[in-house]
Amino acid sequence: MKIGSVETDNFTVLAPLAGITNLPLRLLAKRAGCGLVCSEMISSNGLVYGSGKTVQLLDSIPEEKPLSVQLFGSDPQVMADAARIVQDSGADIVDINFGCSVKKILKSNSGSALMKNPPLAQRILESVRKAVSIPVTIKIRAGWEPSGKQAIEIARLAEGCGVDAIAVHPRTATQGFRGEADWSIIAAVKKALTIPVIGNGDVSAPEDALRMLNETGCDGVMVGRAAIGNPMIFGGMLAVAQGRPAAAPDDGQRIDMMIGYLQDSVRYLGEKTACRMMRSRLCWFVKSMRNAGQFRSAIRFIASEKEATELIRKYAESISVEAETLIYK
Fold it and tell me: How far is the C-alpha of 256 from the C-alpha of 129, rounded, in Å?
């Protein structure tokens, strides 16, 4: 898939997920075959005014490239300045959030609020496009009513402003993640544009990705929630698209992912912060596995990488995963 000057290895995309798609999780997705990974949503104000925690969200390493960094905001000049910071950080693509419908974001006239304000959306897009030379993309929803008319309007406006690709999550802003995604809106946006369109929504298994490609004509498929705890869905998507069966991750692979995720989180976030996160996030990987409840209870208070690793290995032994089969020793 080609997005402006950036060419990805394949059609798969990791969705930006606030508070989740940090560097360690993006690395898991990349190693599992994902063609393009996206940062979590980053405040343009936080970047421009130098918030340490916000700037840290730009941390990246060459292994995860190409990287798309998503910004949110409502001030055209601040968005342009933030986009320059993103470009200077080494990111390959700057993405603008038109889809978040969290109340705090809407109150600042950001996210999905921009879909109700085309004049402001246009000023932002024009400012960002002039500010950077890397590709610019946006991620939108269906809009505020189910017809998808706002999605087509904003998509056409964006293409006219020089945006290089558009991701479409075809639920309304009021739906959140409830109900079904209307893939016909993805198809309508694709038909209206000449730039690449990436479909998103209700892709919970590899076979869904192929169905979305066939039904909508989209150029790429973006996965968010289904990749949490199972980044191997990306490899499965590629297999199905190539006419091969998608293999579900076995217990040993899940243990590997947990250890790798732990190690990368400690390496890039620091042991204290990482272990606090792992108390809940390691649980993502054991869903539907044997003795998962016991493991969830055991990791509630982990305070060191050594302790977390020992608990993972004990859990592996309890479900009869042999140490010799593991990549991470």
Answer: 41
| Start-end of H helices in 99-170 | 103-107, 118-131, 149-160
Q: Is 244 exposed, middle or buried (0-12, 13-18, 19+ CB in 10 A)?
A: exposed
User: Which whole number is the average pLDDT over 10-38?
Assistant: 96
The number of distinct structural domains making up the chain is: 2
pLDDT bin (cut points 50, 70, 90) of residue 327 is: low
| pTM score | 0.94
Q: What is the mean pLDDT of residues 65-80?
A: 98
Note the pLDDT tens digit of each residue in 181-226: 999 999 999 999 999 999 999 999 999 999 999 999 999 999 999 9
Residues carrying an active site annotation? 100
- Residues 269 and 206 reside in one and the same domain: no
* In-domain check, residue 246: no
Residues 263 and 188 in one domain: no
For 37, what's the count of Cα atoms within 13 Å in the CB-facing half-sphere? 30
- The mean per-residue pLDDT over the stretch 174-185 comes to 90
Comparing CA positions, the residue from 200, 206, 295 lying closest to residue 249 is 206
pLDDT, residue 328, reads 53
First to last CA, the chain: 36
Q: How do strand 6-7 and strand 2-3 relate by DSSP bridges?
A: antiparallel
Query: Which residues sit opposite 12 in a β-bridge?
Result: 221
- Spatial CA neighbour of 189 closest among 147, 223, 228: 147
Share of the chain above pLDDT 70, in %: 97
CA angle centred on 20, ends 313 and 326, rounded to 5°: 25
192-208 in b/e form (b: 16+ CB < 10 A) is: ebebbbbbbbbbebbeb
Whole-number mean pLDDT of the chain?
94
Residue 274 lies in a domain: yes
H or E element in which residue 294 lies: helix 292-298
Structure tokens at 112: 């999905």
Domain interval for residue 99: 2-241
